[in-house]
Structure formats: C-alpha cells, structure tokens
Amino acid sequence: LIEGPLVGKHILVTSGPTHEPIDPVRYIANRSSGAQGTAIAVALRDLGAQVSFVTGPADVPPPQGVTVIRVETAREMKAAVEAALPADAAVFAAAVADWRVSSESGSKIKKEKGTLPSLSFTENPDILATVSQMSTGRPRLVVGFAAETDNVVAHATAKRLRKGCDWIVANDVSPATGIMGGTENAVVLISDAGTDVWPRMSKAEVARQLAHKIADRLSAAFAV
Ligand code: C5P
C-alpha cells in the first residue's frame, strides 16, 4: 500500500560525486559521500513519490524502492538525467566535477623519472542549469544545492539566479563544520520568497523537511 502526498509524482534526484577519468586507473572527483542525496531520495519515496535516482560512485549504497541509474562522469549524468525526464520535480544534490581532463589517455600514464604529466581541462556541462533553463518540459520545481566554504548565503543567492533553479539548498562545507561525510547538515533554503536558515539537524531530517516542502509546492495549484 503506497500512500502519501507525493503519490503519482515522479521526482528525479542526482547524488554522489562524478569521476572524470585521467587514464584507466586515475580520475579527478569532488568529495561527496552521497549521504544527503540518498536521504532525500528516501524521504521522497516515503511520501509516495516515484523516484529516479541518478548517482555517481558514492560511499553510501543507493536506497531500496527507487529506480537507480548509476553513472560515472558528468556527461553520463547529464544523459541519464535527460533520459529520466519528464519529472514533476528535480533535486540536484550531486557534486558534479566542474572540469574533465581534455584528452583521457587510453592507457595508463607511465611514471617517468624527471618528467611530470601535465593535464589540461575542459568544462563539463552544467546539468542543473541545463534543466532549469529548459524551454519545454521543465520540471515544475527545480532544486539545486550549493556547497560553499565562505559567504554562503551571498554565493548561493547569486547561484540561484545564475542557474535559473527555483530553490537552492545551501550549506557550509568548510572542514571545521564536519558536514562533509558527516551525518549532520546545517542548511539555508533560498527561494524567491527569501532566505530560510534551518537549524543544524541530521541529514535524514533535512531530507524529510525538504521532501515535505516539495510536496507542499507540488500540491499548490499552478504555483511555480
Ligand atoms: O556551480 P556549482 O557546482 O557550485 O552548483 C552546485 C549545484 O549545481 C548542485 O545542485 C549540483 O548538483 C549542480 N551541478 C550540476 N552540474 C554541474 C555542476 C553542478 O548539476 N556540472
């Protein structure tokens, strides 16, 4: 028996890091355990949503009862997101690598005495911005994340406008907070209605409160 305010809604969630290969054995990546994205997928599922969970190589296992799509790179994540649309809402919790190595080596780069490899980079597609700015088929609610280490609210407010998403969930990931890889989070929800500072709580509780807000928004007639 499935019941809850999100029954009949399809929600896309991205989670985890992306890995951008340098050669067959090396990669660059962002730090991301996937804990917050996984908790959000669980909370949305528990309110009855049908969840498509697009995840990079995360530390925590993906939840039961959602459609799991595993990817490695940002480009794969973008393709998986586009294939999973349409959705009523989309939550972009993944820590996508901003850059990939321009020319991935097909064979392992050898260590040679006296020479160092040099890498050049290419910008990855911005999945959140792409979906936020879709002219047709855009999810009614697009939620981005902003991991910042300073001026959290100012940077996240600018990011919301630049990307074109509806909400930004901003958090301070400077090492002293212990948030990255930890079980707690302290977030600020930024929307067109303003800035809402949430107290520090578990990532599961952040996820539950966010899922309830998403349910409220999707059930409001014609609210965007
Ligand atoms: O620009 P920045 O990476 O700080 O933005 C963070 C937000 O954008 C997150 O929601 C993240 O999932 C999303 N993002 C994305 N594709 C990228 C980079 C970030 O979807 N290439």
Automatic annotation (TrEMBL):
Pathway participation: Cofactor biosynthesis; coenzyme A biosynthesis; CoA from (R)-pantothenate: step 3/5; Cofactor biosynthesis; coenzyme A biosynthesis; CoA from (R)-pantothenate: step 2/5
The organism's place on the tree of life at top rank: Bacteria
GO biological process, one term: coenzyme A biosynthetic process
Span list, region Phosphopantothenate--cysteine ligase: 11-224
GO terms assigned for molecular function: FMN binding; metal ion binding; phosphopantothenate--cysteine ligase activity; phosphopantothenoylcysteine decarboxylase activity
A cellular component term, taken from the record's GO annotations: phosphopantothenoylcysteine decarboxylase complex
Limits of the DNA/pantothenate metabolism flavoprotein C-terminal domain: 6-216
Residues given in the record as CTP binding sites: 98, 108, 125-128, 145, 159, 163
Ranges in coiled-coil conformation: none
Keyword Lipid metabolism among UniProt keywords: no
Entry's cofactor comment: Binds 1 FMN per subunit.
Keywords, alphabetical: Decarboxylase, Flavoprotein, FMN, Ligase, Lyase, Magnesium, Metal-binding, Multifunctional enzyme
Cofactor: FMN; Mg(2+)
EC number: 4.1.1.36, 6.3.2.5
Reactions catalysed: N-[(R)-4-phosphopantothenoyl]-L-cysteine + H(+) = (R)-4'-phosphopantetheine + CO2; (R)-4'-phosphopantothenate + L-cysteine + CTP = N-[(R)-4-phosphopantothenoyl]-L-cysteine + CMP + diphosphate + H(+)
Family assignment from sequence similarity: In the C-terminal section; belongs to the PPC synthetase family. In the N-terminal section; belongs to the HFCD (homo-oligomeric flavin containing Cys decarboxylase) superfamily.
Task performed by this protein: Catalyzes two sequential steps in the biosynthesis of coenzyme A. In the first step cysteine is conjugated to 4'-phosphopantothenate to form 4-phosphopantothenoylcysteine. In the second step the latter compound is decarboxylated to form 4'-phosphopantotheine.
Protein name: Coenzyme A biosynthesis bifunctional protein CoaBC
Species this protein is from: Celeribacter baekdonensis B30
Section of the entire sequence shown: 179 to 402 of 403
